[in-house]
């Protein structure tokens, strides 16, 4: 098995409502900055340093609300705000430039190299919306 086959991702509601099949040996790794109590009880561990930085998240949320006020549906507002704040570029920079994020990436990469099966978990359903965890998954795979 290649290390990239050891890394999956999903969202917390999918786990809570049994909408996804997760291998029993997989470690559920939260990647949110401010986990709720019900999030913490669903995952095995959480890496707050891998959540989007507060300034990016706050700017994104504000733009999301602005776009909704302009009449866009939630999904459209989400994706428009993502592009408007250059979320992907800024999150990638965060992962490579901020020490805590780099250390967390290094730790997860090492665990994958040791053939630990990991499932990245956050709040966002990515069927219609873009999410940082898919960027993180690609970033981890690129490190391998």
UniProtKB/TrEMBL annotation:
According to the entry, every stretch annotated as the DUF488 domain falls at 22-143
Q: What is this protein called?
A: DUF488 domain-containing protein
Q: Which organism is it from?
A: Halogranum amylolyticum
Classification of source organism? Archaea, Methanobacteriati, Methanobacteriota, Stenosarchaea group, Halobacteria
